[in-house]
Design goal:
The complex is a heterotrimer of chains A (145), B (286) and C (635). Chain A is α/β, with parallel strands linked by helices and 145 residues long. In chain A, 34% of the residues lie in helices and 19% in strands. In chain A, the strands form 2 sheets. Chain A has a 5-stranded parallel β-sheet. A two-stranded antiparallel sheet of chain A has the order 4-6. In chain C, 58% of the residues are buried. The chains are: A alpha/beta (145), B mainly alpha (286), C mainly alpha (635).
């Protein structure tokens, strides 16, 4: 049975403690100039509907539980994409008192898109690669069952 | 013979509904200056959803959407076989109520608000839908679709007001702005995903398929106004359906969502005026 | 002695016996046995007389007349006395005018009038006898268990349980007499006894509020009784007849229409239509069995029953148009009002008034189809509404509240009770249950008689009913997980009648083609000369399929549930779920409880101004209609 996850990856966009720079770039991908809906991507706001979790910004004391909950409420197969340098390592805020670090402190990150702010082209590139990872995950899940 | 027809309806109607939804997305995207997804995107969405992991919030809430689907299929079969239109509307109401109950059953804040809004939408469009069937009965002396569409004159000649009212509430039925309060296919995330918030995977796919059937049902209602005994009229009727759909897409892209007060008031006032005037004028002509 | 006479007299005797027995245990046994005998008697009477029908005349007419006169005087004296004591002067005036009027009439003119048939038992009477007998006895059975716990929970009220049950049985006796009688004077007497029973039951708790509401009910019903009395006197003097069957065969000229109009006013007061609705809403302070029996299933049906009987004289006559308009306005206004209520008994009261308005509209439209719809509506409404009232009563005992917003824990506390309540609610408005079938035929009947306004009102009213019932049903299936475990089990005393009624609701929906074929169509053929079932057989088949699906599908889903092992995830609360699906992490680090409430759209539909203007409109319709009727009759 052919797998359709690559034709219709739905994203959940979550802002950790981002300065909103990467968020604006993510939303720019949905605009006519970059139009990521060509790939069937829809920005759902709901973890239960989403396949890809796009996280911008780092993880701090307040949102560490939230991020865990959102990830838990997503259905398999799912991937986590860390957008921007803050999501990867904490960025320039890494030494702040409230910042725990990048998203990989909480979740298993599948893909990093570096940049400050990450460019829409890079984000789209990252999403496309994440879709391939999703596909592989679905294959292994099928083989396991 | 009739079994074959029923099976054909059950299989083909969602295909048509899905294609219509796909066309909607492509045309909306082009209107917004974008390229848009492929035409078959809704089908890819549904297949993907069917292949996702099954998760649930509690044991009960997904049961309701399956029952809702069964009754909506029932409605489609009744309508496309030319049966009793008022009965079909009652069965559709039953299916919609199960959908609303699903929102309650998950006991979640967002789906509760979605359910209340969905109920309000139903309350807003129900009078008009009932008056459509009453109007058609008044003109053609029968509730049966086979008889309504085999008369000499198309029903639109006698029921222009009722048809205009139907067009107004069609926006509710197709879940388009400005009346898409309870859940929305677009990125409107006012109450997250509204009534469908707690669903995922197969259950969400079932909801999507239910909406394809509902789209077909909505257009059958439009179709009935234009079909007559002649074969040519069927082409005209389908053409009108296409024009109406285009109009709905334009309205969807042009208007923002309204508050529930405006939705209820406008629907009831439009229904009252258009349907009342039309039917009263008819009662004098007859 | 005739079975029918036994049917009428047995509850009366039971009432007397129960009143005298003070021992709780003995009295409960007597009540249960009497209730069962009443139910069985009703079934037997209907079974024996169904095919042939029956027309009887009282044997000892004069003695019975004098007994009735004596009873009326006693009742009037009692009403005047309590009215004066409580300063309710309207009631006093009404009683003081109508009883002497009737006595004078009995002593003078009535001797010259011969009544051929005091009692007529046709198919419609059979239906009414079954409703009163079966549902009445089930409610009496329920009341035994209910009243015990009622007084345990409310020890501030004085315990008068013997009195309560005695009045219940007195009422059943009077109601049976009412639906069987063809003599207008006998019907009038039974009518007044039901008003009295209602008064006694509403005032049961003797609180200030209860007493005021009881007097309001009494006053409005006595006003209706006065109209009834005047109508009877007019008919007796002008036409030298006192039989209902003769009256409805007369031509609708002015001197006939005026008494018919007065009789209709009496019916409107009894069935709490606008502008007379306030008494029924106030009557909800009474204990639940009386709300179920009198104020939803039976007593208020007396009014619509009278209108159904009078249907040949309504229809397109001026009186008919007035009553149709009142009925439809009542239906719309009270349906909209019910949206804003959260007290379950108030919702049920408004719904009752609305459905009675619909029955009045159907009956008053006067065509064969609309009468079919009216009678069917009456049957299904009695069954479903009494089920709902009894369920609400038990719910009040279980969770201590009758607010719909508190009922989301009901599934956790008592799964069967919430299931019965869901069946009751479904029976009120959902396809393919009986009420929906009746509404369907009603819609068809209205449009067939070119009644555009009524059709539109029905469409809007149906939309409103959908809203408030589904809201309630949603709360019931919510299965909220609250930690408080309420320790009160669902007693067999209360469960057994509720279960029977739930079964009746479902069975009667399956059986409606049979009810139509064997009872309704013959009755309507008698009235109209020719009658057919207004729904096609193909539609009937589809609805029976739907009903079966509604029953089979939930059951068939259970094995799927047992097998399916899905991962349970928390509810989406923007990721701030505290883990138990009931609380979330709010701002400032505070953990807050989630509270989910329905919409009540108070500022549109709960407005007192809205209600006030509806009453004004109803009064205007009655006055203008009466004026037009008289003017039209004179010129």
């Amino acid at each position: 049975m052919k797998k359709f996850i690559k034709k219709s990856p739905w994203i959940l966009h979550y802002d950790g403690s981002s300065c909103n720079g990467c968020d604006i770039e993510v939303l720019a991908c949905l605009t006519p100039l970059y139009d990521v809906e060509r790939f069937g991507v829809i920005n759902t706001g709901n973890p239960k509907h989403a396949d890809i979790l796009l996280i911008t910004g780092s993880v701090n004391e307040q949102n560490i539980e939230v991020v865990k909950q959102l990830y838990e409420q997503m259905a398999e197969p799912k991937v986590v994409v860390a957008i921007g340098i803050c999501a990867a390592t904490g960025g320039i805020f890494a030494d702040c008192y409230n910042i725990i670090g990048g998203v990989n402190k909480v979740l298993p990150v599948d893909l990093y898109v570096p940049g400050c702010a990450a460019r829409p082209e890079a984000i789209i590139d990252g999403v496309v690669k994440a879709i391939e990872i999703l596909e592989k995950k679905q294959e292994t899940a099928r083989v396991k069952n | 013979m009739i079994i074959l027809k029923i099976i054909a309806i059950i299989i083909l109607a969602p295909v048509i509904g899905g294609l219509l939804t796909g066309m909607d997305r492509v045309i909306s995207a082009r209107m917004q200056g974008r390229f848009g997804p492929p035409l078959l995107q809704p089908f890819y969405d549904v297949f993907k959803l069917l292949q996702k992991e099954s998760i649930e919030v509690n044991m009960m809430h997904r049961f309701y959407v399956y029952i809702s689907l069964i009754f909506v299929i029932f409605t489609t079969v009744i309508m496309l076989l030319g049966g009793d239109i008022l009965l079909a509307i009652f069965v559709l109401t039953l299916g919609s109520i199960f959908f609303v109950l699903g929102g309650y059953a998950s006991n979640s804040p967002y789906s509760l608000v979605g359910s209340e809004r969905e109920l309000l939408q139903m309350m807003a469009y129900e009078p008009m839908v009932l008056l459509v069937s009453v109007g058609l009965y008044y003109v053609d002396k029968s509730f049966y679709i086979t008889q309504i569409i085999s008369s000499k004159m198309p029903a639109i000649i006698y029921l222009p007001g009722v048809f205009a009212g139907l067009l107004f509430i069609l926006t509710f039925k197709l879940r388009k702005s400005p009346f898409d309060l309870s859940m929305s296919h677009h990125g409107h995330q006012e109450i997250v995903k509204g009534i469908t918030t707690e669903y995922s995977g197969k259950d969400l796919a079932v909801i999507e398929i239910t909406h394809w059937y509902e789209t077909v049902i909505a257009f059958v209602l439009v179709y009935i106004f234009f079909a007559t005994a002649s074969n040519f009229s069927h082409f005209i009727a389908i053409g009108v359906c296409g024009v109406v759909y285009l109009l709905e897409i334009i309205i969807d892209n042009a208007f923002a969502r309204v508050k529930w007060q405006m939705a209820l008031k406008s629907a009831w006032i439009v229904t009252g005026i258009l349907a009342a005037v039309n039917l009263i004028v008819l009662s004098f002509i007859k | 002695m005739n079975l029918v006479a036994i049917l009428m007299l047995f509850p009366l005797i039971a009432s007397g016996v129960i009143f005298l027995v003070r021992n709780d245990y003995a009295r409960n046994v007597i009540v249960r046995i009497s209730a069962c005998i009443t139910g069985i008697l009703s079934l037997v009477v209907v079974y024996v007389n169904f095919k042939q029908g029956l027309a009887l005349s009282f044997k000892y007419e004069h003695i019975i007349d004098y007994c009735i006169m004596a009873a009326s005087i006693l009742i009037a004296v009692y009403v005047i006395y309590t009215g004066m004591k409580n300063k309710k002067y309207f009631a006093v005036v009404f009683a003081a005018v109508q009883t002497p009027l009737m006595i004078w009439f009995e002593l003078t003119y009535k001797h010259g009038i011969e009544i051929h048939n005091d009692i007529i038992f046709d198919k419609l009477s059979a239906i009414m006898v079954l409703i009163v007998g079966l549902i009445g006895s089930l409610i009496c059975l329920y009341a035994v268990g209910y009243m015990k716990w009622y007084h345990i929970h409310h020890d501030e009220y004085k315990e008068r349980k013997s009195f309560f049950f005695a009045v219940l049985f007195l009422f059943i006796s009077a109601m049976t007499g009412l639906v069987l009688s063809n003599s207008l004077t006998f019907m009038y007497f039974c009518w007044e006894v039901t008003s009295l029973s209602s008064f006694l039951l509403i005032g049961y708790t003797k609180t200030e509020e209860a007493k005021n509401n009881a007097f309001r009910a009494l006053t409005i019903n006595l006003g209706g009784g006065l109209a009834f009395a005047v109508a009877v006197v007019m008919i007796g003097i002008n036409f030298k007849t006192l039989e209902l069957s003769t009256l409805i065969n007369m031509k609708p000229e002015l001197m006939v229409l005026i008494p018919v109009f007065l009789l209709a006013i009496a019916a409107l007061t009894k069935s709490a239509q606008l502008p007379f609705s306030s008494w029924l809403l106030g009557a909800m302070v009474a204990p639940t069995p009386s709300s179920a029996l009198l104020h939803s299933a039976t007593m208020v049906k007396a009014g619509v029953y009278l209108i159904i009987r009078l249907a040949p004289l309504l229809g397109t006559t001026s009186v008919g148009r007035i009553i149709t308009l009142i009925g439809s306005v009542t239906f719309l206004v009270t349906s909209l009002f019910a949206i804003s209520q959260s007290d379950a008994k108030k919702i049920l009261a408004y719904s009752t008034i609305a459905n009675l308005g619909l029955i009045v509209t159907c009956a008053s439209t006067g065509t064969q189809e609309s009468l079919w719809a009216a009678i069917l509506l009456m049957i299904f409404h009695s069954v479903s509404k009494s089920l709902l009232f009894l369920s609400v009563g038990s719910t009040e005992h279980q969770i201590g509240s009758r607010n719909v917003e508190d009922m989301d824990i009901l599934m956790n506390v008592s799964r069967r009770l919430s299931l019965y309540m869901i069946i009751g609610i479904a029976g009120m408005f959902l396809a393919p249950f009986g009420m929906l079938i009746s509404k369907w035929v009603a819609m068809k009947a209205f449009i067939d008689s070119d009644n555009i306004l009524t059709v539109m009102i029905l469409a809007y009213g149906s939309a409103a009913t959908l809203f408030y019932w589904t809201k309630w049903m949603g709360k019931l299936i919510s299965n909220a997980n609250r930690k408080e475990k309420i320790e009160h089990s669902f007693h067999i005393d209360e469960e057994f009648p509720i279960f029977i009624q739930a079964a009746l609701t479902v069975v009667s929906c399956f059986a409606f083609p049979l009810i139509s074929k064997y009872a309704l169509v013959p009755f309507l053929s008698g009235v109209f000369g020719q009658a057919t079932i207004p729904i096609d057989t193909s539609d009937v088949k589809i609805m029976l399929i739907m009903l079966s699906m509604l029953i089979i599908l939930p059951i068939s889903f259970s094995p799927i549930y047992k097998k399916d092992k899905r991962r349970i995830v928390p509810i989406y609360m923007a990721g701030e779920n505290a883990g138990d699906n009931e609380n979330f992490h709010g701002a400032m680090g505070v953990t807050r409880k989630v509270e989910l409430r329905n919409w009540y759209i108070d500022n549109y539909f709960g407005n007192n101004k809205f209600y006030f203007w509806s009453n004004i409109i109803a009064v205007a319709i009655l006055c203008v209609g009466a004026a037009l009727m008289i003017w039209g009759g004179i010129i």
